[in-house]
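=== How it folds ===
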Amino acid sequence: MTRTDLLRGSHATPRRTVLISGASVAGPALAFWLNRHGFEVTVVEKAGTIRSGGYPIDVRGTALEVVRRMGILPELRDAHIDLRRLTFLDGDGSEVASVEPHTVTGGVTGRDLEVRRGDLTSALHTAVRDDVEFLFNDSIDTLDQSSGHGVDVTFRGGSSRRFDMVVGADGIHSRTREFLFSPEEQFHRYLGYCFAVFTMRNTFGLSRETMMWNTPGRAAALYAVGDNDDVHAFLNFAHPEPPFDAFRNPEAQRALVASVFADAGWEVPGMLAAMRDADDLFFDGVSQIRMPRWSSGRVALVGDAAYAPSFLTGQGTSLALVGAYMLAGSLADRDHAAGFAAYEHSTREFVTVNQEQVGKGDAALFPTTARALEQRNDMLRNLSAMPSAEGRPAHSALTLPEVMPMT
């Protein structure tokens, strides 16, 4: 008998129903905590299954306490990548500096986690799959709150259902947000860069390390997460306006990246050749989502859909985990209106302070002028090889409330 079965037998009144759109990080984390608080949860995901693989992500500060309370911290500790070295190269391929990664990222050695995205999503799904309903190969087609008694949802697969609440956990390009408010451009804060990431053969002898090449406005990195045969290739470049025409056109993406790096040295020509054949190319603009409110009626947003901080902060995954915990706790003993208001009141300051980390740490890795690049290189040469003992205050700027036991 699952926990859900026990809960069904312990409640005299019907449990409130919640539909979550998205089964990456925020969605399954929210499903876990809503189920813990007695909700009946359905998760809809357009992909056919939980996505495996993916680039490495960080779990830091307050988010570590979330995964500890979920019971998955030991599993994530076992999956920790333990990146050992970050080497910066000049335009001619010569070494500028080699540093301990946490001195740049603001992480804490021995405490903060870096894991493959697929390892985290798998752990989250395993923790909740027996207690909530998952609908794969489907997505929300329409939302209608006009009845006043719930949210009527039509799925792309053709079925229709009513839920007490709907939560969009469907990422920075959230369709749920577009249903609720307006097109993305209204909330999209473009930070002046685009990037492409993909996997390629590790012919470089790299292991648990990153090498990053820079010229003004351009960066290329090879990231080896272990001793396997592949590395993550990363190409980042300054671009004054978001290239909207390329966002939905993979061939336009490849052409844009190839043109920007056409005269680049080091290993970049080989990276461009690998990109042409990569079947896992991911391209996007570096941006944040900033919204004046995260809900409308019975529908709310969580994670990147509501407050993407950009990879320059290294906090996207941690904000998703913390936001899911806070949203579920806020709804535990409140109706949707009061719960959503409490969620924003308790979480927005933490979100804001982490979004404002742009310009610190990782963001300084991509200078756009020769002078700024030389200043960054001087800073790197002077960095102590010792990691930060405390990390950045923003990463732990929220203390989690305790989970109240169910009655």
User: Anything to note?
Assistant: The CA atoms of residues 255 and 276 lie 9 Å apart.
